[in-house]
Design goal:
7-stranded mixed sheet, about 35% helix, two-stranded parallel sheet
Amino acid sequence: MNEQAEVVIVIGFGKIVSDVLEYLIAQRKIRGYELQFIEYEPYPTSRIEKLCLENQIVFMRLHDKAAVTRQLEGCKRRTLIVSAGNKYLFPPRIVGKKNLTIINFHNALLPHFPGRNAPSWAIWAGAEESGATWHLVSEGVDEGDCLWQKACAVTEDMRAYELSKKIMEMAFEGFQKIFEDVILKKAAAIPQDVRGASQETDRLHYSWEVPGNGVFCLQDKGRFVLAKLSISNIAWQADEDTVVYEWMKKYGYDGLEIAPTRIFPEAPYERLEEAGNWAAALQEQHGFVVPSMQSIWFGRQEKLFGTA
């Protein structure tokens, strides 16, 4: 009996999603499934929509959790959902649908460092290794049975962007290895070890949390201090971002202080969701965090305080 998925849906953002989509486009010629993409988080500079348009992929812009849930509830055919760099949490009624197989990429060796910004937490905790995990999605966040894992060393001088890049490279390697078994519903999955809630490495981390609550002292280990160096994005022109980002990586900068109008020239303070997604993508793609805002009216000449 043929159990192959008839539809493959990808949801998420970042380089790992681009790599996975391009691989799925090539495999579609062999396996004949329908390919769809859900944009749950808006990201102004994403190339995903263009990639979908060029390759006849159904592109759905669904920025509301309820809309995504309705879309997935309506899936009647055998469907594989690939989640990577994705903030949508699948509710129990979606996880429980018999015709859906849902897999997720996590940027750590589960059950360690579940939740958001795992590479930064691994470095902060002094972990000697981290890695990539593909797992089945369950009702608990990052608690599903593991399909594939690969470890890498976390060196003393490693930055978050370096670890993130290595993990994403490994994750794409892993996706290619498990894809055939997953789409045919014959992949072997191994239950995760019981999580020790009292251990920092096994605690679920949220997007708003910052290692050390954003505070460090000069007596901290060198890599912790280096992780706090930042620079303002009004020190160069927008068309120089890519060059400066590479320079920042070379010299150990992990923080990018932003002038909001430099990122969103129009109504920047009314676009909080987009700003959050932009910051998340900045960290995933480049390893930078946004420690502060400045020059809140950069490039503008309106009066902030009435007639004063």
